[in-house]
Amino acid sequence: MIYLLLVGVPLLVGLLALAVDNDERRPWLLPFGFAIHASIVAACWRTLPGPAMDGWLRIDDLGLLVLSLASAMLLVCSVYCLEYLRLRRERRNRLFTACLSFVLAAVSLVAVSHHMGLLWVGMEAATLAIAPLVYFNHNERSLEATWKYLMMGSLGIGLALLGTFFLTLATFPFQGPGDPLLIDTLLSRAGTLSLPWLKGAFIFLLVGYGTKMGLAPLHSWKPDAYGESPGVVGAILAGVITACPFLGILRAFQVCAAAGIAGFAQSILVMIGLLSMATAAVFIIGQRDFKRMLAYSSVEQMGILALGVGLGPAGSFAALLHMINNGLTKGVLFLSAGNIHRAFGGKTMDHAHGALRRAPVSAALFLLGFVAVTGSPPFAPFVSEFSILRAAVNGHRLGVALGFVGLLAVIFIGMATTVLSVVYGLPPSSDSKQSLQGDSPLMIAAPLVFMAVVVFLGLWLPDWLTTVLGGAAKLLNTGAA
Amino acid sequence: MEQFSQLLLAFIVFLSLYLLGSSSLTGCINIMALQGMCLGFLPLTVRAEGFHSRTLLLAAGMFILKGFLIPRILLYAIREVKIRREIEPMIGYAPSLLLGAVLIGVSFVLAERLPVPAGLRTSLLIPVSLATVMMGMLMMISRIKAITQVIGYLVFENGVYLFGLAIAYEVPWLIEMGVLLDVFVAVFVMGIIINHIARAFDSISTEKLTRLND
Amino acid sequence: MTLILAAVLALGAAALLSGLFSRHDPWARSAVIAGLAAAAACAGALAERALAGREVPDLLGPWLLPGAVFHVGIDPLSACFLLLVLIVGCCAGLYGEGYIAASHGHVPSTPARFFFLVLVGSMALLVAARNALLFMVAWETMALSAFGLVSCEHGKPEVRKAGLLYLLCTHVGSLCLLALFALLGSNAGSLEFSAFAAAPPLPAAWTTAAFLLALVGFGMKAGFMPLHIWLQEAHPAAPSHASAAMSGVMIEMGLYGLLRLLALLGPISLEAAFFLVALGLVTAVFGILFAMTQRDFKRLLAYSSIENIGIILTAAGLGCYGLARNNSSLALLGFAAAILHTLNHGLFKSLLFLSAGAVYQAVGTRDIEACGGLQKRMPWTCALTAIGAAAICGLPPLNGFTGEWLIYSWLLRPGAGHGLLLGGLAAAILAVVGAFAVVTFSKCYGLTCLGQPRSATASAAREASWIMLGPMALLAALCVGIGLFPGPAIRIAFTAAGDVARAAGPAAAASSEEWSRLLSVIGLLGVGVCALSALLWLFRKSLLHRREVARGPTWGCGFSAPTARMQYTGSSYPVPLTRVLAAALATREEAHPPVGYWPDKAAYESRTPDPALERWLPALTAKVEGWISVPRRLQYGRLQLYLLYVSAFLVMTLLWKL
Amino acid sequence: METLKLVASDLLMVVFAPPIMLGIIAKTKAAVAGRKGPPVLQPLYDTIKLLGKGAVYSKTTTWMFRLGPVVSLAAVIAAAALVPLARAPLISFNGDAILFVYLFALGRFVTITAALDTGSSFEGMGASREAAFSSFAEPALILAFASLAYRSGGLTLARMFAPYGGPSAAASTVLALGSLFVVLLAENSRIPVDDPNTHLELTMIHEVMVLDHGGPDLAFILHGAELKLALMASLLVRLVMPEMPLVGAVGSLILGLAATAVVIGLVESSMARLRLIRVPQLLVAAICAATFGLLLTLR
């Protein structure tokens, strides 16, 4: 029942949005619909609902984390959208609003599905639902971005499907009750799975979902899509849409760990994690376009997530925490970046400088978000990144630790150069800038909320969250070496 | 029966190679249609379980969809944007053919490392599907025109579908759900995109789509 | 122990209030002053208790972060630095109010107040932190608030440049510290400092790694050569009260970190100790050399901070030598010298920065060549500057001498051993540094305050307000007081050093008494010098009584119309040295000497670039650019390539792993 | 009683020995030049005369200008309290050697700032040179002190300059003597480093700094300079003087000072003034000598 609500409510909201024919009122559907969704999620926190549809739907700690992150972020972003869409009157926002709620529906499906096939379907739906959002600006650049996004996305989805088939074949010869792709079935029969097929499945799922998640070298669509879509869409892409494929990879990892080949999966994850960080470092240095810079930083964060999971139990705990911290911080960054973009009519260092004078709050938030995302205390990402570092050192993997720290340093240098030149200095002498407005209440309220949470989590990790994170990490590492 | 399926599979690989080599768009689309029909026949042959109503339905669906529906859409698309031939691809035809051969080899090597799933009538299915997948990717990589990339993507899908046949029995709905949804959606959305591309750039080539870079 | 929390909270609250009242200046001001006063009261009482040797129980609180405990405690070492933080913080903060008021909006008041209070608060928390995570939180808060201060006036491009450079350096340092604490933590199984102390010794490879990480992490903040590059850029960029706090206290926090680590982890190897001494001497020599050649007096002060850090590091290295030889008296002496000089440097350097700020506001430039003749126009400021300059040269009746004297007595101590030759040479190098300091600060003070004004603004300069002069006077009084009656300061330094040198009990107390007795004799001699000077002054007065005392122009050696432009300039003053030391300094001279019988305009300009900043760093960045430009080509926008990456990666991974 | 005598003798030393030494130097030079020369007590007469005169202060100057002479003289007198003149010094403690060096530094600092206070280009020039050259003299002094301290096992001037009969005593003593003598010449602006009675300001170092001082101030400065010379000379003498009772000690010290003065005079009349750029080389040579002495003591 509750699952039906979780997926159905946003779906309904989306359909309503399609039905309503008034650009002024339509956006107001979102906050209310999403608030209901959020309250349902809150109910899930109180008591985890049991499995439904003979085990196909079930919220475990992993799913709960992703679900809550998505619900919270979309709720705040929908509030931001009220103001944003009011400013973008020249566009019809029917498709935008509808797709936003469809995204939530698809993501909820991914989060609650306890079956690899169903999870894949949800991922597919999410991929499709986000495309119109990326294309919202309807200009050549956004078209190109959407094209690349869809091409890469469909390829990734295809590979993920192939991976799912591999997973099925790993269970052969399959007899008995239940569906072979049920997580529970897979885990319970972990011992009997055929390892070559399982390995193949993991690789295909990693590449397929990794493409959607944006791990290097599968990330190349990211800067374009993030750079050309509206800031709020960027926030959702970087915060929510990356969490779902990560969940998919985690499920595959869960099975591998249960089947006792965690080492194999971890080695690949560490490799791809460091590779992603290195790639991000290379492209962040001297990046003049601050939205593309954020995209690369997101590539880096994905790498950190993969690395964390690759570093064993402690690392996985940190990685899951980092998934949440990164989502919220990216929320701050993309929303404030969007404001700055609007305040200057450009998203490169050449157009935008001296933001602190023209859009003080957004600029300050942008600066703080940058400091936070690069892992400085007292902000939340620091906690998780430090824990990952400790996990690496405790595992006596000094090489990995060294690379991690070094890449963090390089990335910080690259980002700082761009961010500071955007935030500080004198704004360009503006002649026709009255069309470009500075801060407006709702659009700084949303990132402010995110920032508050980031600071809070950086100073105080509530124990209810810790228990869930711990449970999820335990799920990941059952039987892991 | 087994011989027949083997024959079909070999034919499918051959068709993919032919696709790699051919330059005329209509030709490509027709060959794809042909490949789709072969895919339609396969479910009846590869599995030991013989003729279920489900299998029949699946076969018919594939036959119609991949054999007729999608080719129609694609032909409509190229008529819409008025182009016939693929301009010079990124990788020439001969090299891409060679690469295709190499990829077939690779896929057989990989298939060697995987145990043959039980209940499969032919051991050829897995390598062939992998090969088709890879050649589809190769086509997406080596071609300039958006439409040919779509065709490549369809070849890739065919490969995935072939693979799905191996498990069509144990996982009743996945293959239909997955492949149909996937193919349908991908081609549909891309059709729209292509139209947009046509309008935005008055050409269907992705040459123009290289503004966003570092 | 809750007092420290009270202090930190008071400062935080004051910061928030000053931010809230950004519209009502008087309220914000009173908030600042109240916060500082409250913090001083709380933490001062605490420090007094700790230094009096009374046991102060630690304060442990739950803190829901992985591996974190909210654990603050205070021991003499902490108390010593806490005292410094408070004194300098309060003086600079009070001064800052006057400075902001007098700057007529050049200094944005809200960030200048907010970040300053946060800076002081975070430093107070830092010295009390007993858990690595808490330490890092305080450390980074300190670094970031300092960044906020540095980029207060971010309208100016050079300020932005300085801010960026500072941010990059400090973050790299912080990352090294993170790695360091990860190492220690994994060895100790916990992030508690007490656990570090109790942990088994690190594996050999890790020891080296930890040493280097600590050196870079803390040295980046303290400004060891060549990690100093940010320092001389950032300190001039910040408003002067902030520069005072940064140069007087913040960079010392790097040394506090090193000392704290030594106190926790115990002795380091002999080679490491020698390395520290050598590094300290190099830092000192080059710091003062670059200081000598600066034209901007705040840059000059920043470089001299590097020099003093070098001296302190030398002393700390000597202490480490003592530890390594487990000769506790030597260790005690070395660390005590380090801590004492840290205290002294904090005092006179912040005094000098404050007066520099006053001069900057009066003249409107930081260029020594445009100053001069200020002593007639702003007598109080210049008098205090003179005291600071004499103190920083380590001249006897003032506090600067006490620390250096301790170092000398360490180096020239009687006894035999292979270290002695090095000791003598080190002493000689210290002497050179001292002499260069005399050159530098006779230039800084003499050419800025004395002679005739070299510019119109300088001749129009006005004395600073009392709210600015008061704190400066207090600092100067402390400099003189410690110089004449060094007893208490010595005891503080020695009790603090006891923790690091692991020398406690009667022996340590005895040696502390011994040294304080000797220094008190020196102090008395200083009093004697003052008394003697006073007597001679009176003597001269009586002699000149009822004799004609004429006032005329300066004797121009026959030239009848000397002008202010004929005075010696900051560029020409150190030339005898820069010429001799050309190899080390690479001073660029821009000279257009007068030519012909009727020469037209002649000019001379000299500039000494910082090699680390202006040669090595660009070379490094160029190299890195070269490296990354190769993979950069991978992303040039072609979808086919992107697809190729995916497929290639897939096939590779399959062939490799499957 | 003993101490009273000691104080009395020291006081006499501090007040009368310095000018007389200068007189002897002048006499020696005159004698070498075949002139009659001024009376030996001439410097004393000068000082007294100057004390009797009024003063002229530049309008540019401030209190710093008047502080200079006073503090420099006071510093030197304080240094005198540390120096073992005839017997034990008035004040002696472990580490007083460093204080001795730094008291001179204090005197230099105030003299320099006083010179800069006049705003005259010549005095600025002198200040710059004084500051530069002394920064080569100080390490030599410290190194010499270091070797003496190590070999005598104590950082007090009294012990360092007491008679010493350890291994390689002679060599190290000679080296210390040599370096200290060079430092003495440099610190007291004698030829070959500086020419005290040149009349071309451009070539002066110390003298040019005090161009503007007159009357009692000049008297203070002159006496301070003479005293400084006398103190360092007496250190040299103590280095070679055997232990003996007070009277003998006073006598031999006076003789030694006179001898030193003669030597200085001979050096001055036999050598020309070095070019300014060469001065650092001389001092570096002194540093090398001191280092070598240090090596010898440690061997």
Main β-sheet of chain A: number of strands, strand sense, barrel status? none
What would you call the structural class of chain D? mainly alpha
Look at the structure and give the mean pLDDT of chain A: 88
Structural class of chain A: mainly alpha
Task: Report the sheet with the most strands of chain D, covering strand number, pairing sense and barrel closure.
Answer: none
Q: From the alpha carbons, calculate the radius of gyration of chain A and give it in angstroms.
A: 21 Å
Strand composition percent of chain D: under 5%
Sequence stretches where pLDDT stays below 50 over 5 or more residues of chain A? none
Calculate the terminal CA-CA distance of chain D, rounded to whole Å: 43 Å
Distance between the termini of chain A: 38 Å
**What is the total number of structural domains of chain D?**
1
Order of helices and strands of chain D: HHEHHHHHHHHH
Structure description:
Chain A has helices at about 1-20, 25-45, 60-85, 95-110, 115-135, 140-170, 185-190, 195-215, 220-230, 230-240, 245-260, 260-285, 290-310, 310-345, 355-360, 360-375, 380-395, 400-425, 440-460, 465-475. Chain A is mainly α and about 475 residues long. Chain A has one domain (about 140-475). Chain B has one domain. In chain B, helix 2 (about 25-40) runs parallel beside helix 7 (about 145-165). The longest helix of chain B is centred in the first third of the chain and has 28 residues, at about 55-80. Chain D has one domain (about 1-300). Chain D has helices at about 1-35, 40-50, 65-80, 95-115, 120-150, 155-160, 170-185, 205-210, 215-240, 245-270, 280-299; one strand at about 55-60. The termini of chain D are far apart. Classes of the chains: A mainly alpha (about 475), B mainly alpha (about 210), C mainly alpha (about 650), D mainly alpha (about 300). Chains C and D meet through helix 15, helix 16, helix 17, helix 21 and strand 3 of C and strand 1, helix 3, helix 4, helix 5 and helix 9 of D.
